[in-house]
Design a protein that fits this description.
- This protein has helices spanning 15-20, 61-69, 83-92, 96-99, 118-124, 191-209, 230-233, 248-252, 270-301, 321-324, 333-336, 363-371, 462-474; strands spanning 37-43, 71-77, 128-133, 150-153, 164-169, 179-183, 213-219, 226-229, 307-313, 318-320, 325-327, 337-343, 353-359, 399-405, 418-424, 428-433, 440-444.
- The chain is an alpha/beta fold and 484 residues long.
- It has an eight-stranded mixed β-sheet with strand order 4-3-7-1-9-12-2-13, sandwiched between helices. Strands 14-15-16-17 form a four-stranded antiparallel β-sheet, covered by helices on one side. A three-stranded mixed β-sheet has the order 5-6-8.
- α2 packs across α9 (270-301) and α6 runs parallel beside α9 (270-301).
- The longest helix is centred in the middle third of the chain and has 32 residues, at 270-301.
- The radius of gyration is 22 Å and the shape is globular.
- The termini are far apart.
């Protein structure tokens, strides 16, 4: 699988750029005199299939372990269910309406220019910043060298043929790859294994030197192709994989605008569905094991008392729901909801869950808040630091996600034809496609957590629809936490 040593690195800045960093806000120190580090971990296309989220099958001992150190957010949402738009949003602290990054090809800074992104804020304040793997989206136009002192950029989406013991494909969703691979590779020689171990190498060096750090570790899995070493597949016997509780009739009730990938002409067989679920779950557990490498280093180096650990997905992911939807790019709950765990030293509610609504765009102001840094004034998220002490306090009344649609149903659309927007409250999901011209959706999560019965045209819910439409149109500023 190669070694870290040959991978691309970007080090340092010009003298002029270094001098320009001095204009950043001064670093505020913790009472102990030490700055608070950040270990920022992102898993690609990870949904909430994890033990700490109550999944009955998937084994994630290290996500569960991190949840015991910190807080598990049960209702966390991305702002766009696609890699580049989501990452451009939460790393800038700006919503997709502002970044205007709506496709995989849109450069990260095309519409925000000289904005200070999250890692750069820490760099301007004297932190060593580095990342291994996928933090920004892959590709020169998406990466952000000014954010980092050192980079080991993402690679290895597809495993080398010589490492594959067994693979499978199927006629899955049209316009998207659909493949799984069982590998003979040792964890440490996989790209994600190298990412974890490179991050540990930095942690060890910086801990010895006493330097504050912001380190990013970006794991590719469980992104397709679902690829992991054989021992992780062995944890999930094919015949024991639970089939999604759905039917083709459910797909026929879904609004055309709500679907990004047409299903195959013939539904997947039960055996194929089980094999793909097995592969996705194996990829999740493999990724979780690499998370464990990072947490072991936290233990060994004694970093828990001055390091914030953030773990999240970049967007949700479908696994056959709604009559056969797979992948992302929707405004259904499975695609918009993401796992989020934050372990911050000394917070009163560590080890607990919060059911309050939070958004990925909130990460930037939260980390600045926790580390005593002054963020840019134009951020469009809200620090959820208060929830880390009081997880049940009144909070946001809505979380917002949007999704673009091209003329063709494909995630790689280069031009957006129209937009769908959705707001999730603690009870409801309300969605308008093309400002309602291409359909409206309303789901009651108290009675219908699978979002199977669209109530938008039911006159009994006209008042609820009107209220939520108003909230959606007023936007995130109308949903801010109450002042206390």
């Amino acid at each position: 699988m190669g070694s870290v040593s040959h991978l691309r690195r970007t080090r340092g800045l010009s003298r002029r750029q270094v001098l320009s960093l001095a204009v950043g806000a001064p670093v505020l120190l913790r009472a102990s005199g030490r700055r608070t580090n950040v270990l920022f971990i992102v898993s690609d296309d990870l949904n909430n299939a994890a033990g700490c989220y109550g999944h009955p099958v998937v084994q994630t001992p290290h996500m569960d372990r991190l949840g015991r150190h910190g807080m598990v957010f049960d209702r966390a949402y991305c702002q766009y269910s696609l890699c580049q738009p989501s990452r451009a949003s939460f790393l800038s602290g700006l919503r997709p309406e502002t970044t205007r990054v709506w496709t995989l090809q849109t450069p990260t800074r095309q519409h925000v220019g000289d904005a200070v992104f999250l890692p750069e804020l820490f760099r301007r304040n004297g932190y060593f910043t580095a990342h291994a793997g996928k933090i920004y989206h892959t590709g020169e136009e998406c990466e952000d060298p000014r954010s980092w002192d050192e980079e080991v950029r993402e690679w290895g989406k597809n495993p080398p043929p010589g490492e594959i013991l067994e693979s499978g494909t199927a006629a899955g969703p049209k316009g998207h790859s659909f493949e799984w691979d069982i590998l003979k590779t040792d964890d440490a020689r996989t790209p994600d294994g190298m990412v974890a171990r490179k991050a540990v190498e930095w942690m060890e060096k910086l801990a010895r030197e006493g330097r504050p750090f912001f380190l990013g570790a970006g794991f590719r899995r469980p992104h397709a192709p679902y690829a992991a070493p054989k021992k992780y597949f062995d944890l999930y016997p094919v015949e024991k994989m639970p089939l999604p509780r759905t039917s083709p009739e459910e797909f026929r009730r879904v609004l055309p605008a709500a679907v990004n990938h047409d299903p195959p002409d013939n539904p997947l067989s039960d055996d194929n569905t089980r094999r793909f679920l097995r592969a996705y779950f194996a990829s999740v557990t493999f990724m979780d094991a690499q998370l464990g490498v990072l947490l072991d280093a936290m233990d060994r180096l004694g970093l828990w008392d001055n390091t914030i650990v953030v773990f999240s997905g970049d967007n949700g992911y479908h696994l056959g729901e709604h009559g056969g939807l797979w992948h992302k790019n929707s405004l259904f709950e499975e695609s918009a909801r993401i796992p989020l765990i934050v372990a911050a030293p000394g917070r009163k509610a560590n080890g607990r869950h919060s059911a309050r609504l939070v958004e990925l765009v909130d990460l930037y102001p939260t980390l600045a808040d926790l580390c005593g840094l002054r963020p840019p004034e134009n951020l469009e998220g809200t620090s959820f630091a208060p929830l880390l002490d009081d997880p049940g306090r009144p909070w946001k009344s809505g979380a917002f996600t949007m999704q673009g649609r091209g003329k063709e149903r494909t995630e790689a659309a280069r031009e957006i034809d129209f937009i769908g927007k959705s707001v999730r409250t603690e009870r409801w999901r309300y969605t308008e496609w093309d400002e309602g011209r291409r359909g409206v959706e309303l789901y009651d999560h108290d009675r219908d957590p699978g979002e199977l019965k669209n109530l938008a045209d039911d006159p009994r819910y006209a008042k609820t629809r009107a209220q939520l439409s108003g909230l959606l149109r007023r936007g995130w500023r109308a949903a801010l936490p109450p002042r206390t």
